[in-house]
Amino acid sequence: MLTKLLKKSFIVVIGTSVLSGKVLGQDYQLEFKPVNPDEVLAVKWEDLMSQADLAAILNAPPVSHDGYGWDDKFSTDSPVESAFQRALQSFDVNPEYLGKRIVLPGFIVPTAYNEEREVTEFFLVPFFGACIHVPPPPPNQIIHVTYEQGLQLDNMYDAYYILGELSSQVVRHELADSAYSLKAEHVEMYN
Length: 191
Fold this sequence. Notes:
The protein is of the alpha+beta class.
């Protein structure tokens, strides 16, 4: 079940993203015009994974649901199962996007607030409920975002576009670990 959920979540995210690796264009549905838009890359979540991790996630082995510890049932002798297990915990980043200004839609998991109770730090994740209701995505599918301006988050179900420069700074938190970090230039609700 979890494998199906993870697989479906990644497929939904993969299927809904647009303009991967392309310079931000007029087809992108943003409400604002960023400074130097020709430098902004529209990125999909799967672009952040290594090719090996993406292949392992999309070719997940069947999971047995008898008893507890579904991930304990994987065989270390099976290359498919070992690759899948590694991909679920991977910190492998895609160097192609490091140091680049990117825009990416995702869901916000707050980790810090300012005095006005606005979100100033959060994890950006590819699907709703990540890090809260289900096991977190792999670290290379989580971006730790700082946003000094602060965001009034009224609804956890809403998705947002995040714009900023991507780095490979690892952040460890009680909710999850992220392989990427980003200082947000702009945060906007996803339409």
